[in-house]
Amino acid sequence: MSQIQLKLHRYRTHTIGTHVLHLEQIIIWMRIFKRQRPHLLREGVLDTGSPITVFPEKEWRQFDTEISWITAPNDPNVPPWCRQFGGAAGGRIPCRIGLVSIEFFDHLGGRTGPTDLVAMFARDNGVMRDILIGLGGGPFTKRRFDFTYDVPTISLTDI
Known about the structure:
1 helix; 159 residues; Cathepsin D, subunit A, domain 1
């Protein structure tokens, strides 16, 4: 059974009275397979609010020949939530859905995958910063996600 460790990255901490608040993200590392080596190694942020993974344009342009496009740009047969990406702060970024082969890895030599990942590829003109690893589209299929916040221990295990 393959397993990887993820990282809880705590950027800032602030105390209000007896309450401690953290600005933090769960970081996951991936290898994006290319026909010609070297494969691309990238860091993503686990985003439980994202229905599927979203790659910023500055990232996916580096491996666009590896993407198998599932939809056409602005395909009217695809629901709006599959054609555009938006955040809590508002605004919409057009996207196209495609398939790319990846594997997740960690600093200890662990790996899961490879996985054919269905993802949104944003046409954001440099607005997006992070690759957002969403819940759907394959990254967690047949995998168990364990998170003990107070330790913090986070693992992703093939099942």
